[in-house]
Amino acid sequence: MTITNKSIKGVCHLNPIAAATALALASLSITPALAEEVEAKKESKIEAITVTATKRSQVIYEVPIAMSAFSGDELASQGISGITDVGKFVPNLNITGFSAGHNSSANPFIRGIGLQDHLITTDPGVSVYVDGVYLGRQVGQNWNLANIERIEVLRGPQGTLYGRNSIGGAINIITKQPDQDAVTKVSAEVGTRGRLKGSIFTNQAVNDDLAFNFNLGFNRRGGLGEFTNLPNAEFDVGENQEFHGRFSLKYNASDDLRVVFTADANDGEGGTRPYTTLIDEMPNGRLYQNGLRNSDVAADPYDNATGTAETSTVSNNANGLSLTLDYDINEDLGTKFIFSKRSSEYKAGLDDDGTQLALDHYPERGTADQTSVELQFTGYLGNVDFVTGLYWFNEEGSNRQSASEASFDGGPTKLELDQETTSRAVFVNVGYDATDDLRLSGGVRYTEDEKSASTNVFDPVGTIYSHREWDDVSWEVASNYTFENGLNWYATVQTGYQSGQYPARPYFLINQFFGAGGFDNPEAGAIVRANNAFIASENISAINYETGFKGQLTNDFSMSVAFFNTEYDDLPYQVSVVTDAGFDTNNLVVEQTSRGIEFESTYLITDNFTLHSSLGFMDVDVEEQNGVKPVAPLTPELTASISPSYEFELNNSALVTTRLDISYRDSMYGEPSSDVRRMTQIDSRTTVNFDISYAPMNADWTVSLYGRNVFDERYDDARLNTGAYILLIKSNDASEFGVRYNATF
After folding, report:
1. Is the pLDDT of residue 24 over 80?
2. 693 and 656 Cβ atoms separated by less than 8 Å
3. What is the rounded distance in angstroms from the CA atom of residue 659 to the CA atom of residue 76?
4. How far is residue 567's CA from residue 369's CA, in Å, rounded to a whole number?
5. Is 10 left (phi over 0), alpha (psi -120 to 50) or beta?
6. Which regions of 457-523 does DSSP assign to beta strands (E)?
7. For residue 379, what are the CA distances in angstroms to 61, 386, 388, 430, 454?
8. Of 174, 366, 458, 733, which sits most exposed with the smallest number of CB within 10 A?
9. Do residues 737 and 191 lie in contact, with contact meaning Cβ atoms separated by under 8 Å?
């Protein structure tokens, strides 16, 4: 096939999906010629990452889903210091961190699916796993990316292998397992904004069968503003510090049995995340009607004018234990058993009025305890391989806002939420190598969920209890074909499932109490309990149609491109409004279709010059609701990144490596409405990181000069119009420059 200027111009006039398809198909024809010119048999210069996205080891090009992978050793040089930073470099991924004003929360949104809240009655739409263990809560966990082997980001519903709460995708964090290599690594980082970071990691073998590793670390970053009416505040706005550690022991009990025990913990505290409140923009709102104005909040949005000490500090701690047993039955069959217990708790909260007055302030505490068990049976039978297993998960958690601390409209308010969730599942996934080039795969998962929840937001109503059960069958079918040039084509149809959710802040129960006669009717509380409007939504289902190409077109160029169309039924959007009874959060249930393109590539322009890039485009269509067409919140239409890196050798044979990482996230909305009058549009943003590393020849140390968000791009994490005022949650991201030292012994 010959590519001419005329044909290129023709492609440019197609819509984005058609254009990308045409170019991808064209590449299939032109690649053999290119490969001959660059000596196709020459060994590839790009190392293909091995991943475990399908719970079996595969080269990333062979996995029939859209996914990105990050090597743990390269995270720091890319400016990734926490999981939120991962969201800057994956197409159609956006990670915010504003829950309860906390600095240790993470809210991933993949392809328009995520969760804006954190309370126990809500579930994330993107699941996060650490070494195969699902994290039920995403506030208070250890997000310091130390001792990391790699991070995998799977896009699209992952219901078959990853189960419930993976309707948007899944994030796998894989730590380094103990092995026989004796190595110790230390790292230290000092920078602007009070950055002080240090960690030590060691891996040691006790004997041929027993090895261990552990890491300990401390991470501190200064704040961005002051609590102007709290001169004795313990922390500045946005300040945080955390201790974290992880210990892992691996024992080869026999040639066939391997046992890994892991324990981890973290303990953090700091000042609340930067935010401000807009009052003048809502002249009919309660704060404005009470005489407050924008001049009553801090003039600098990164300062905070609260007079309530309880809402100025946040804290988090979590700990967990896990036990993994791998047993080889024979050469072709094996089993894996994963047991885990985790606990987490946090203290946080916002002073929503943003002033010195104690009108609307919500200091909050939350706890969660989870236990999970997974048993896998894997094997190879000729051209067939399979993964099957059983899964059990239990979580108990609570949230509390005490009437002695929290206030609404100047009066006491309370929130008590409790929930226990139990989930059981059985799954199987089978792959069949039909030929050397064609692989077919498919799977099915059956899940049963039950939730028991209770709430008390008003003592005259009392505690209301509710219980509900759901079940679902998730499935997927996929195929991938490897062309002679090494390029892989795949096509996948996959489904996902999430059980229904209870309202997060059911203050509507107070309105029902007064609607039933209030204090004039002694039976009003009993009537509200009997009618019980504290009920869960229907289960959420998703189906994704996806096709794409991935692989190495030449020995110095690899790429992946994906085209997807995902349909969601009974998807809850959280809508928060201030009513006469309190800050009410309920679910707006919608039908949503997301479609788009994702592209990633690595190009070795020369032996010393490498260019990484990513691009995501997405169109989200939400079914009209009562004459209003909602939008997917916190979902940019366009995401992109480009990362050139160059290394060169000095006269003394020292190696200098330079890297630049540019990330772009398009504008989006902080809530499910695009009405400009609600003022919740979040501007687009571009952030830039750089890293320059110096490594002497044959030395065991490296020193690096780094810059993160070097142009100090300040942006909003979220915007929320409550009907009475507008909350602007600012990102805790700001420019930072410093020096990092790494040594290996």
Report:
1. no
2. yes
3. 11
4. 33
5. alpha
6. 464-482, 488-498
7. 21, 6, 9, 10, 44
8. 174
9. yes
- Residue (of 615, 637, 735) closest to 682 by Cα position: 637
Over 70: is that where the pLDDT of 693 sits? yes
Average pLDDT over residues 243-266: 96
Residue 580 tokens read as 């006469």
* pTM of the model as a whole: 0.89
Q: Which residues contact 670 (CB under 8 A, 6 or more apart)?
A: 633, 634, 680, 681, 682, 716, 718, 719, 720
pLDDT for res 212: 97
Confidence (pLDDT) at 96: 81
**With contact defined as beta carbons under 8 Å apart, do 268 and 243 qualify?**
yes
Residue 664 burial (C-beta neighbours within 10 Å; 0-12, 13-18, 19+): middle
> Taking the mean position of all CA atoms in its chain, how far away is CA 524?
43
Beta strands at 333-351 and 275-278: parallel, antiparallel or unpaired: unpaired
**Buried/exposed code over 208-221 (b: 16+ C-beta within 10 A; e: otherwise):** eebbbbbbbbebbb
Contact 176, 203 (CB under 8 A): yes
Q: Please provide residue 649's backbone torsions phi and psi, each rounded to the nearest 5 degrees.
A: -105, 135
DSSP codes joined into one string, 537-568: PPPEEEEEEEEEEEEEEETTEEEEEEEEEEEE
Beta bridge partners of 397: 368, 419
d(CA 105, CA 84): 9
Q: What is the pLDDT of residue 200?
A: 96
| Residue of 583, 458, 600, 556 whose CA lies nearest to 516 | 458
- Which element (helix H / strand E) includes 11? helix 5-12
Q: Which two tokens stand for residue 343?
A: 């606990």
Cα–Cα distance, 352 to 341 (Å, whole number): 35
- Taking the C-alpha atoms of residue 126 and residue 598, their distance in angstroms, rounded to an integer, is 18
Residue 571's nearest CA partner among 507, 638, 497, 470 is 497
What is the CA 561 to chain-centroid distance, rounded? 22
**Distance, CA of 737 to CA of 66 (rounded, Å):** 34
Residue type, 234: E
User: What distance in Å separates the CA atoms of residue 233 and residue 228, rounded to the nearest whole number?
Assistant: 9
The answer to whether 1 and 29 are in contact (CB under 8 A) is yes
Contact 260, 178 (CB under 8 A): yes
Region 653-660: what's the mean pLDDT? 95
| Cβ–Cβ under 8 Å, residues 371 and 391 | no
| Torsions phi, psi for 286 (to 5 deg) | -65, -40
* Coil/strand/helix, residue 674: coil
Q: Tokens at residue 190, please?
A: 């000092």
Mean pLDDT value of segment 484-506 = 91
Q: Is the pLDDT assigned to residue 20 strictly greater than 50?
A: no
Q: What is the pLDDT of residues 392-421, one digit of tens each?
A: 999 999 999 999 999 998 899 999 999 999
The first and second tokens of residue 102, run together, are: 């906390």
Q: What is the sign, positive or negative, of the torsion defined by CA atoms of 553, 558, 564, 568?
A: positive
